[in-house]
Amino acid sequence: MRRKLAAGNWKMNGTTADLAELSAMADAAVRGDAEVLICPPATLISAAKSAATEIAIGGQDCHAQSAGAHTGDLAAGMLSDAGASHVILGHSERRADHDEHDDDVRAKCRAAWDAGLVAVVCVGETLAEREAQNTLDIIGGQMAGSIPDGATGHNTVIAYEPVWAIGTGKVPTTDQIGDVHDFIRARLERRFGAGVGRSVRLLYGGSVKAGNAADIFAVSNVDGALVGGASLKAADFVPIIEALNASST
Ligand SMILES: O=C[C@H](O)COP(=O)(O)O
């Protein structure tokens, strides 16, 4: 049985004042079975963990090496030391803004595991790739390239985030989400075996809101969501947590 996961990615948003939002999110986490994860900017990880111990806290990226002369970068062990238990890797914004490729993501994933972090590995197609009917090839390639051998349900979560759905208000149909999630599950089972393949949680991300969350959570092989904009405010994120809790029963 996979535990549902409501994950929020604050991206480059938030200062200490915004930690006040965590209190109601923590209350919602305690009310249900779903795990709640917030990935704030790294500057807030330590304070966020202290502010809401009921919520898991994560980073948004890490370096592939454990230390060294890499100005501005953060090692996975530093995120862990600050209170993080998870780290998002391979987000399409990192792939686009920082020219990250699958081999970079794979190396970061190993670094995250070495530091004891759960890697939340993002995959997703662009609109052009979907329109060219290449979605499953793209997802399969990203999975093969970004996820190292050794993935388990304990150390890895996969987030399917169609690039064209991020921050746009456009959401794939539930059939489209289901097709991709079923494909990801099948690929995991083929590569890692049925037991491991069935244990890895699969999140959908891209314009998840209170109004569409329940429909998305009813889709086959959707174990939760990776939420951007709607995770910044408790008023927006708590209903998503509650929709996920309702779907767990
Ligand atoms: O990591 C989160 C995703 O990029 C989704 O962002 P969004 O919910 O603002 O569309």
TrEMBL record:
The protein's annotated pathway: Carbohydrate metabolism; erythritol degradation; Carbohydrate biosynthesis; gluconeogenesis; Carbohydrate degradation; glycolysis; D-glyceraldehyde 3-phosphate from glycerone phosphate: step 1/1
Catalytic reaction annotation: L-erythrulose 1-phosphate = D-erythrulose 4-phosphate; D-glyceraldehyde 3-phosphate = dihydroxyacetone phosphate
UniProt-annotated location(s): Cytoplasm
Entry keyword set: Cytoplasm, Gluconeogenesis, Glycolysis, Isomerase
Top-level EC class as recorded in UniProt: isomerase
Main location as per UniProt: cytoplasm
KW Nuclease (keyword) present: no
Catalytic-site annotation from UniProt: H91 (electrophile), E161 (proton acceptor)
InterPro entries: Aldolase_TIM, TIM_sf, TrioseP_Isoase_bac/euk, Triosephosphate_isomerase, Triosephosphate_isomerase_AS
EC code: 5.3.1.1
One of the record's GO molecular function terms: triose-phosphate isomerase activity
Binding site for substrate: N9, W10, K11, G167, S207, G228, G229
Gene3D superfamilies assigned to the protein according to its UniProt record, in alphabetical order: Aldolase class I
Pfam families: TIM (PF00121)
UniProt xrefs under HAMAP family: TIM_B
Family: Belongs to the triosephosphate isomerase family.
NCBIfam families attached to this UniProt entry: tim (TIGR00419)
Assembly: Homodimer.
Designated name of the protein: Triosephosphate isomerase
